[in-house]
Amino acid sequence: MGSSKIVTVGKWILPATVLSLAVAAIVFLGAVELADEFEPSEVASVAPSEAETAPSERSAPVSAPKVAPLSPPPTMARQTAAITQPVSWRRPQPGAARQETAAAGQAATLVVLLARAKDLGARLRLLDSRLGKLPANRAILELEGLLDGVLPGKFAQAEQLRLGVLARLGRYDDPRVEEILIRRLETDLPRPQRLLALELLAARPQAGRGMIASIANNDHDSVVQKKAAWALRHAR
Length: 236
Fold this sequence. Notes:
By secondary structure, the chain is mainly alpha-helical. It folds into three domains: 1-38; 100-172, no CATH class; 174-236, no CATH class. The protein is 64% helix and 3% strand. It is built from 13 helices and two strands, in the order ββααααααααααααα. The protein has a two-stranded antiparallel ribbon. The protein starts with 5 loop residues before the first strand and ends with a helix. Mean pLDDT is 73; it is low at 1-14, 38-62 and 75-93.
């Protein structure tokens, strides 16, 4: 062909057009072979692992679940409501407990005064003077406090004063006095107190009949037993 140039390559002489086609064919074949070498499985095998591709998904902190606020228990709620409610103030009314507390305080003061007296006669006179200034219910409370308390003097003197207190209790006509006298019949109390209590109960036919009858039928102290039988006969 007249339009083609002659190219000399070493000892080879090829037309330029034929050489160009040959080079293009070689390049095409090489590209096809390279594409065949990289299979999809091989591409997946060399792909970054899950830990490498998404480190933020594994290391990201897990958000805590939202928890509803706890409501206070019913008891606490009632207490809170009671505290927040307005409180109406009322003057406390004097009751039996307050009267007994005051009487116990007065009895303690009276014991101090009795201890200053020189003998049993002076103490009994001081006691009578004190009782004459008190209403019956208050006098009973103070006498009961003295009866159960520690009295001044040696044992014999203190017990004689206790009998004087018990005798003065017997002067009052009150259900509380009957209860005190019945308690003085207990077997662990000294004989003089039990005998005096039986004598004072003989004047109260409706008080302690069952206990007196039980003592009259059976008691470890024969003297008290005879006194109980006497109280039953002389009930008036």
